[in-house]
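Because showing beats explaining, we think one record worth quoting, sequence and backbone structure tokens together, and here it is:
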Amino acid sequence: NAGHHAEGESMDHADPKAVVTAAYAAFGSGDIDAWTALHADDFKLTIFGQLPQSGVFIGPEAVIENVFEKIAIHWPTFKLTPISTSAIGNTVYVHNKMTADGLDSETMHMFVVENGKVAVFTAFEDTDSMRQAMVAQ
């Protein structure tokens, strides 16, 4: 790993934990361009359950349209606050506090980081509490 490559940027070998931390910061501040830049073009996002944003989506645009825009509608004050972040190889687990009006819960997010970008994201969420807190049913 000490070798130098003529091509590629420093993000190619970025610490998976740092990539995920940056992704949360971008999401939290609403910087969609920065968030998109941290994700692979074909990254796969999975949200379990039967919520408006549940499903499997491929690529940043699909996630913005099918997940972020729906969260903004149904949970306008939605906020994630990381409690702890653990990395095992290139897999990063983030235990979050999840809040919104009428919602005070916790969630576990799993990321796989490849080449300095998020390749896979899976959310294990308290869907029952999220459903009860939805403002537009």
Summary: The first strand starts at residue 39 and ends at 47. The chain is about 30% helix and 40% strand.
